[in-house]
Amino acid sequence: MTTQQLIDQIKIKKSFLTIGLDVDLEKIPHHLLTLEDPIFEFNKAIIDATHDLAVSYKPNTAFYEAYGIKGWMSLQKTIQYINLNYPEIFTIADAKRGDIGNTSSMYAKAFFEDLNFDSLTVAPYMGKDSVEPFLRFNNKHTIMLALTSNEGAFDFQTLNVSSASGSKELYKQVVETSQTWENSENLMYVVGATKAEYFAEIRKIIPDSFLLVPGVGTQGGSLSEVCKQGMNANVGLLINSSRAIIYASNGTDFAQKARIEALKMQQEMEEIMNLRFNV
Amino acid sequence: MTTQQLIDQIKIKKSFLTIGLDVDLEKIPHHLLTLEDPIFEFNKAIIDATHDLAVSYKPNTAFYEAYGIKGWMSLQKTIQYINLNYPEIFTIADAKRGDIGNTSSMYAKAFFEDLNFDSLTVAPYMGKDSVEPFLRFNNKHTIMLALTSNEGAFDFQTLNVSSASGSKELYKQVVETSQTWENSENLMYVVGATKAEYFAEIRKIIPDSFLLVPGVGTQGGSLSEVCKQGMNANVGLLINSSRAIIYASNGTDFAQKARIEALKMQQEMEEIMNLRFNV
C-alpha cells in the first residue's frame, strides 16, 4: 500500500485508528475456545465488526508465537482474511525485529512477502544495515521504534548522546540518523502517547512522517494532546488501541462491544479532524 | 540448563563453540531439497556430525520465519531433536526480541516454554520492563545485545551517552544498567568479535558474565584476540560460527565437511584453554 492510499483511507473514514490484535487465549470469550482456531475466529469477529472504523490492524507477533505453530497459523489466516476481504486496510506486523543485514532480509521476506503485511515494526539498536534491508521493498513500510510508551523508555531512549551533530536525546538521534538511510521515505516511527510533550520535538525532525502511537487508553495517554502536538497536514498519526477495544467484553457480545469502543474513538478522531481541517 | 552445567560441558569438551543454524534453502545441498523437511534434515545431519565438538547450537529465527509455518515446524523439530538426543547442549534462540512487559512475557513463553530453548537473544532499546519478563525464568538465560558485530553497531551503540553515573559509550551504559535489573544473574551479552579491543572494557563491568560472540570467521574477527581480551576463569565465552561451518560444502559430504571445520575451531579452542589454564 502506498502512503497516499493510507492518507486517502484516513480521510474517507475520518479515522486514524489502528486496532492492536494482541490476542491472549486467557482473555477471549470462553465460548470461542471450543472452536478449531479460537484466535482467528476472535480476530475475524473483531475485524468484521470494526473495519469501517479503523484504517489499520496490528497483530503483535508475540501473542501468536506463544502458541507455536497453531499461533503462526492463526496469524497467517488473520492477515489473509484482511487482505482478501478488506484490501483497503493498512496492516502492521508488530514484531520489533532487527538483525545483521542478511538476517533482516529474511525477516523482510517473512513479513512483506510470505505473510504480505504492509508494514513491520523494527528496533534500531543495530543501526543502518539492520534496517535498510526492510526499506528496499516498494510500498512496504518500516516502522522503527523511536520513543516507546513503557517505563523502560527512560532507561536509554531519553539519555543524552553526543555525536558530530551535537548533543541530544538518543531517540532524536535515532530518528535523525535514520533519515539519512537509503529509502528512508519508507520509514515510519513508533512514538508513545504517554509522552505527548515529546511530539512537538519529534515533529521538528520529521514533520511529514507517519507516527504509530501506542499508549492511548490503557497506558494513560491522551488522544487530544497527542493530536495537538503530533498531527500534520496529512494527519500523520496512527493511534493504536488494543485491549480497550478487543477486550471490551468477554461475553458473546464481544464484537459488538468492541465496535462501540472503536466507534467512540473514531468519533473523537472525526471531531479532531473536523476542527483541525475546518471541514 | 544452569550456568554451571554449561561451564562443565565447556571443560569436558574443551570447546566453547556455538554453531549458528542460519539455514537458507538456497544454500543447502540440492539433494536435500526433495526431502519433506530439508531444513530439519540439514540441521539433523550437521548436529549429528558436530555435537561432540560444540557446546551450543543457535538457530536464527529469521531463517525459519522466512518459510512461514513450514519454517516454524523445522525450528520446532530441530530444538526437539537436540533436547531429546543431546540434552547436554546449550540451545540459543537467536530471535532478538523485546517489547513492553506483557508482550515480552509472551515471547518468553514462546521460546522458554513452548519451544524449550535454554536461552534467547533480546534487544535492549526498550529498557528494563522489556527484558525483566525474560529474566524471571529459572535456569533460562537472556542474552542481551551489547555491542554487535555489524557496521551499524557504530550508528548508536558506540555513541557517548550522559547519565547519573557519568559519560560513556551507549553499549557500556546498556551493560551497566542491565546489571541493576531483577534476576540479572540470568543475563548474558552479545559482543561482536570484530571489535576485540572492546572486550577488555566490557570485562571491567561484567567480569563473570558469559558473552556470546558472533563475527569470528566470515565477519573477520580473530579467535585468539577475543580470547585474550574476553576470557575469564570459567572461559565465559561462547564463540559463534555459522556459515563457515554449515556451508563448508554443498555436496553430499556437507556434514563431514562441517565436522572438519568445527574440529578446526574446537582444536584451536582446546589449545587456547590448555595454555590459559595450564592443563
Automatic annotation (TrEMBL), chains A, B:
Pathway it works in: Pyrimidine metabolism; UMP biosynthesis via de novo pathway; UMP from orotate: step 2/2
Keywords assigned: Decarboxylase, Lyase, Pyrimidine biosynthesis
GO terms assigned for molecular function: orotidine-5'-phosphate decarboxylase activity
Keyword Lyase annotated: yes
Entries under CDD domains matching the protein: OMP_decarboxylase_like
Protein name: Orotidine-5'-phosphate decarboxylase
Catalytic activity: orotidine 5'-phosphate + H(+) = UMP + CO2
Biological process (GO), any one: 'de novo' pyrimidine nucleobase biosynthetic process
EC number: 4.1.1.23
Domain called Orotidine 5'-phosphate decarboxylase: residue spans: 16-258
Protein family according to the UniProt entry: Belongs to the OMP decarboxylase family. Type 2 subfamily.
Presence of the UniProt keyword Transferase in the record: no
PANTHER family tied to this protein: OROTIDINE 5'-PHOSPHATE DECARBOXYLASE
InterPro entries reported for this sequence: Aldolase_TIM, OMPdecase_type-2, OMPdeCOase_dom, RibuloseP-bd_barrel
Highest taxon of the lineage: Bacteria
Residues of the signal peptide: none
